[in-house]
Automatic annotation (TrEMBL), chain A:
Its cofactor is thiamine diphosphate. It comes from Candidatus Saganbacteria bacterium. Residues 4-179 form the Transketolase-like pyrimidine-binding domain. Keywords: Oxidoreductase, Pyruvate, Thiamine pyrophosphate. It comes from the Bacteria. This is Pyruvate/2-oxoglutarate dehydrogenase. GO terms for molecular function: oxidoreductase activity. The keyword Oxidoreductase applies.
UniProtKB/TrEMBL annotation, chain B:
CDD domains: TPP_E1_PDC_ADC_BCADC (cd02000). Keywords: Oxidoreductase, Pyruvate, Thiamine pyrophosphate. The lineage of its organism: Bacteria, Bacillati, Saganbacteria. Its cofactor is thiamine diphosphate. Residues 11-306 form the Dehydrogenase E1 component domain. SUPFAM superfamilies: Thiamin diphosphate-binding fold (THDP-binding). GO terms for biological process: pyruvate decarboxylation to acetyl-CoA. This is Pyruvate/2-oxoglutarate dehydrogenase. Gene3D superfamilies: 3.40.50.970. GO terms for molecular function: pyruvate dehydrogenase (acetyl-transferring) activity. It comes from Candidatus Saganbacteria bacterium.
Amino acid sequence: MRNITYCEALNEAMLQEMERDSNIFVYGIGVPDHVGVFGSTVGLLKKFGKERCFDTPISEDAMTGFGLGAAINKMRPIHVHIRVDFLLLAINQLANMISCYRYGTGGTLKVPLVIRAVVGRGWGQSFQHSKSMFSTFAHIPGLKVVLPTTPKDAKGLLIAAIRDDNPVILIEHRWLYWQVGDVPEEPYSIPIGEANILKKGKDITIVATSWMNVEAVKAADVLEKIGISVEVVDPRTIAPLNDEIIIKSVKKTGHCIIADNDWVDFGVSAEIATKIYEKCFGVLKSPIERIGFAHTPCPTARHLENCFYPNAVTIIRSVEKKLGLEPMDLTGESFYSHENRFKGPF
Amino acid sequence: MSNLSMDIYRKLYLIRKSEEEIRRLYPENEMKTPMHMSMGEEAIVVGVCHALSHDDQVFGTYRSHALYLAKTENTDNFFAEMCGKVSSMQKGKSGSMHLCDPNRGFMGASAIVASHISVAVGAAFANLRLKNKKMVAVFFGDGAIEEGTFWESLNLACLMKIPVLFVCEDNGLAVHTSESERHGYDSITDIVGKFKCNVLKEESTDAETIYKLVLKAIKLNEENQMPCFLHLKYYRYLEHVGINEDFNIGYRSKNEYIDWAKRDPIKLQKSKLLALGYGKELEIIELQIDKKIEKSIFLAKKAPFADESELYKDIFSDNEAVI
């Protein structure tokens, strides 16, 4: 057993892989500075030098195309964005170039490119530093989209992404960086496209993405006290989506809530719900419930921000409603809050 | 001198003849891909590619028939892809706008203006790191300069001293819009010249002149490691997309074409060789190329289409491992 943070796990994954393969390099705005993208790239410059760990001009679009060019010429770039919102400047490269490059060369070229992007949240991140955009990327054929939740996932999935010969977008939630968990010291990979059951249960299935898994597990722990057994399933990869474990779980429980760390409309929850309706028709005991961000831009002021984001309480109330239970008394329950952790500014 | 001139003519003729064949065959409706014809720009691509080695790499635009043939001379694959046949490396998935042949250094072509420029810079960066001595040339029209990503890419290459030849093929038009409607500046070379970059320009339609200019660009890069911006003028003979002339529309005058056609790159090269007394050799070369193209077209027409299952292939590498 060795407990490290999600952030340390990401760092260790890159460090070990860069030691293994000299063609791997990491770059992006702020990557080699003292902050090192919330600490995830700290120490890489010292270890590997500026040839393999470098800062870039504020040119997200060109720097993404640059990664594609290096990848087709046998390098293995890791491009880091401190916000998903900034990655949107490169959507042309993602949708028009990277995703179809191999297809367009008749399978002649490979694109072993990793793009890491962080979902911002603290307080006050507002509408340009807080986006997830999961389904936007997952909608495009030719891109793999991975959302690590635990520290063990962070290391194993990042290593899998680096070793993958295809473009992989790894989206990391800012709050997950502080999660602590058991992470093996040696390099290992977790297959891209494999879901994970974070908590076993039999009464209801909660499919959650990214940070919402933390909220879902908390909700499950609270509900356990009143005898409700919740199964929490984390798809971990949303493109390509392997629904096998999700379907198996829903067939067992008959009830499903999907808690996505993103907007609901046209989102990952819509895709997963459709898969469940297609494969669990006649088995479902109630309609699928979807939980996600309010369908608004993210506001800045804390009291409005609290209305924007769903949390464990949202999930608990939703489960109670679905199972026909009276709302339980949550007095004395301590819910995850970053008021004590997050002191700003970013 | 004569071998060089003859080699250059061979490529010029190969390109022109191939496109003439497209013009002849397009109405048969077998080539179901939007044709952005190269006619008029042959001197640029032949001049540049002749100065490059087989392993050097180029990136092109949707108007890359000439570049593809200048770099690869692979008429079999060219016509197979135009016809969308399984015998093409891309099996019909790419068509005229996305030609490529990485094994011969043609690394890809984009139909989103300027999107391939940063890709070329990244490819050149990899070559630099891998110390494989491969040079990269990226071709784009003057319209690409209006895209932000051109400036991002230029800035990056200058900053990191990445050896890229930025080849601006300036025909003065973006579809039907003249440069006076698009440019808030007078001289692009003056502006690019402020970057840490070698800048060369030429208005000649003589492929040998371009060739010598590119040798100079490569030498400059060896001396100062800076990338090079080449500003080269040409005239687009045909419509933006399609196989026809479009002087009747009115956005440009046929007199412009008549002026440029007097110094047409293929005619120019041929007249130089004829003046040197190579008439017989030219006849032989042209006949050989005619036969090569005829055979490529025959094979393309004869080849089957890919099986429908091809639709789902080559999205990912090792696709079978992907769930």
